[in-house]
Protein 1
Amino acid sequence: MDGEQCISYIEQHGIDAWNFWRREHSDEQIDLKNIDLSGRTLENVHFYHADLSGANLNACDLTDANLSAAVLHGADMRNASLVRADLSNADLSGVDLSDADARGANLSEANLSGAKLSRTDLTDANLLDARVQAEQLRLARSSRNSI
């Protein structure tokens, strides 16, 4: 399913219906490359295994979203809300997460190579086995990380 079809489905039927469809069609390739979802509210959306390379997710609300194993290479996620989002095994290489709120997010085994983490709130985030450099983490905000 391409990006426009996916977003049209969510707009027409809602996120719960999308998530049900996604569970029933878990093998379906979801191509959201370069899509503009900036400023949208997509709480609890299931975009696992989706290709969101180069997507504009600036200020997008992805609270409690399932983005496990998603490809987000080069995406713009500045100011995004990723509170309690599942980004385990996701490819976040080259992603701009500046000023994002990732409190309690699961980033275990995620690839954060080259990701910008300036002022990203990683409080209570799970970074177990994540591919991330210490200098990247120094730019992030956090009171407690699980590394």
Protein 2
Amino acid sequence: MVGWAIVVFLLSFSLMNSTPKKQVDPSIIVISCSGPADVGGLADRVARRLAREGVAQMVGCTGINAEMASAIQAAQNADFVLLIDGCSNNCAKKCMENKKIPVHAHLCLTDLGFVKGRTPQPEEVLARVCNAAERLLPARKQ
């Protein structure tokens, strides 16, 4: 019985955290690094938060690299693409260049002072990076 309670809790938590709070503007796309380093994980968390809050639609870098038509089309049709890389390797940026996806703003977390391999990720850090990312976006349509 306890096992089912855990499953129900996890499902409800997952749905609660994946459902956008606001209508997502499909003209603004966020694409992030999801690399194995802590800064790559943070970049991914920022993109997911922006999508969940309705700030931008998230498109997976891996989907674009895998030539998924829907991911490429969403990125190419966007009015604005924000790209978030974790470190100065700029893997996501290189992927977009290789696929000829236009990037309107690029945020690299190590440029904000985060150090690869030594970046804690409490809520305050996530909020700080989300704020930096949102400042790069165009004004929201009303």
Protein 3
Amino acid sequence: MKYFLLILIFSCSSAFDRSTGLQVYKDSDELPEFPGGGREQHRFFYKLMSYPQEQAGENFEGVIRGSFIITKSGSSTGYRIEDRSEKDYTSLDKEFIRVARLMPKWKPGRCNGKKVAVRVFYTINF
């Protein structure tokens, strides 16, 4: 009887983020975790986000697809809106970034047992 040894090598993919100067992973063995988990992250955003006054009469409905980087230390940086350039950010986009800057430290992501910076994507529906 022959036995085969199969060795799987897991790798995490990363790229250099010019805006922050960090090597940022989009795939990691362990994703970053907000304190208390995803439910607490939702509560955090929905509790602190406010509808900008200049859009109050517009009955705006839509989606904000934001992202940020969770660093090796668990802090956040590199905030952006995925669908548009910074010059085209709406008041609601800016409000998302304002609130994201207030986040507490996260449990950092890991790749091959080491802490790594990971870009986290977050969507809010209005």
Protein 4
Amino acid sequence: MKEKKDVVQDLIKLREQSKFNEDISIFYPGLENTELKGLLTGLVNKIIDNFISLINQCAVHKEYQSTIAESLSEFDALELDTEERERLYQYLEQIMEVIGIESSRGIINKWLYGFEI
């Protein structure tokens, strides 16, 4: 298990990365709408900030899951295309991997597909 400061540093690096750009390695064409791209990037960075705050508070797994659910609800009103929803899913997976969370307990799958897998 990584130390808290290393996890926070890895999340900061992820936060600093440009998001929703073309990525042929995952067959993602990128988001051309710059206004939407900025909005989504801001929301993903907000999720990262929320997780950094939880880490600094020594949160428990249940609090992380609650934050995931609350964060995803912010994206519902945007009526995103499948590609952007899947890319968001991948960002959440990256965040969870950095923190060491193995599962959202179906929260992300339910948001993405409408049911738990």
